[in-house]
Structures are given as structure tokens and as C-alpha cells.
Amino acid sequence: MDTFAALNSILVKLFNDILNIEEKALITEEFKDISVTDMHIIEAIGIAEPRTMSMISKSLGVTMGTLTTGINGLVRKGYVVRNRSDRDRRIVYASLTEKGIAAYHHHMKFHKSMIDSIMQDLSEDEAVVLNKTFNRLETFFGQWTDKH
User: Fold this and answer.
1) How many C-alpha atoms does 46 have within 13 Å on its Cβ side?
2) What are the Cα distances from residue 76, in Å, to 24, 31, 66?
3) What are the backbone dihedrals phi and psi of residue 96, each rounded to the nearest 5 degrees, phi first?
4) Which SMART domains match (predicted)?
């Protein structure tokens, strides 16, 4: 198999596996009422300071309408709270509840395990090359998205 075919095969399988495995790893008995998409919204909100809805939608690359729908479900399920700015009532902040913070940590634990597994036997030079490769892939996806 030539290099192109090998890389293509690996990437296609990897993307499909990531989606399937992430769903199985993240949606446990404790978090069975949310989806992987919900987990990504929780991740985008984060555990630092509250984030505005526009910051979250931009980081996820979704419309405000799509984000609002997702946030509404997470508020209803007790993972997220929304608050309006005292200075400008048009600005809405989202932050995680204790339940949301637990889901956030659960999600980060999965990602840490995944990265630890990848990095386990890499030399520093190999890690640099891998990082460079993933940055190129991210750039490609960003450029492709901008064009389409």
C-alpha cells in the first residue's frame, strides 16, 4: 500500500473511531442524559470564568441559534446556568453547575488518557513532528471550512 492510501485509510478509520469511542467513553451511566455534542458545549464553557454565548458559539463554530438550543437542554438538565450581564442586559453568560463541572472533568479525563496513550513512547523529536502534523491537519480543515 502506498503512503497516500495508508494515510487516507488511517485518517478515515481514526475519525470514525474517535466519534464512536468518545461517545462510549463519555456517555456513562452518570451522564446518560447528555450527548457528545452536549459534552463539547460543556467543554467550550469550561470551568474558569463564565463565558458569553457569542464566545462559546465562536469557539465551537456553530450559530447562536444552534448553541441556544444546546444550552437550553443543558440548563433544563441541570448542567449549565445562564446569567445576563449587569452592565449590558443583551449579553448572556453561561457557566457550569456542579453537575456540569463533574461532566467537564469526566470529559477531560478521557482526553488526558487519549493524549497520554499517544505520547507514551514518543521521543521529544517525534512529539514535535506529530504536533506539527496535527497543526497542518487543523489548518487544512480550517481553510477547507472557510472555502465551503
Assistant:
1) 12
2) 23, 14, 16
3) -90, 145
4) HTH_MARR
Instruction: Please give, one letter per residue, the 3-state secondary structure of the chain.
Output: CCHHHHHHHHHHHHHHHHHHHHHHHHCCCCCCCCCHHHHHHHHHHCCCCCEEHHHHHHHHCCCHHHHHHHHHHHHHCCCEEEEECCCCCCCEEEEECHHHHHHHHHHHHHHHHHHHHHHCCCCHHHHHHHHHHHHHHHHHHHHHHHHC
Decide which of 21 and 79 is more confident.
79
Q: What is the pLDDT of residues 49-92, one digit of tens each?
A: 999 999 999 999 899 999 999 999 999 999 999 999 989 988 99
Provide the domain count of the chain: 1
Q: What is the CATH number of the domain that holds 91?
A: 1.10.10.10
The residues facing 80 across adjacent strands are 96
Residue owning grid cell 459534552? 39
Residues of the domain holding 33:
3-147
Residue positions counted in the chain? 148
